[in-house]
Amino acid sequence: MAAMASAWATSSTRMPVLQTSFRGEKLGASSFAGPSLLAETQGSGLPFKVSPQKLQVQAMKRIKGKVVCSSNDKTVSVEVVRLYTHPKYKKRIRASKRYHAHDEENRCQTVEPSW
User: Fold this and answer.
1) Spatial separation of the C-alpha atoms in residues 104 and 108, rounded to whole Å
2) Which CATH homologous superfamily contains domain 61-115?
3) Average pLDDT value for the chain
């Protein structure tokens, strides 16, 4: 595959904009929040039209977890468990990571373990 380079910039509305160059073509700037990438690039004065097949932006995957600590004020700790395959031994491994999440009204409570 040809080398793909990307750089982050911000627009005048303070929204993240990704500028991408693919196989030497300058594709222009595409906003993640816009409803149609094709409509944004056609009206921007670019000398060519960009087809939607070249600019497909995928949303991030939502992660699920359980609240493991809710004793702090307006903050909860959420543990997210994911499974991945070891690259060499091909065994499925369970990895967990804790994230801090904002809880303005202190509504989230610790989940009782089910084992």
Assistant:
1) 10
2) Nucleic acid-binding proteins (2.40.50.140)
3) 70
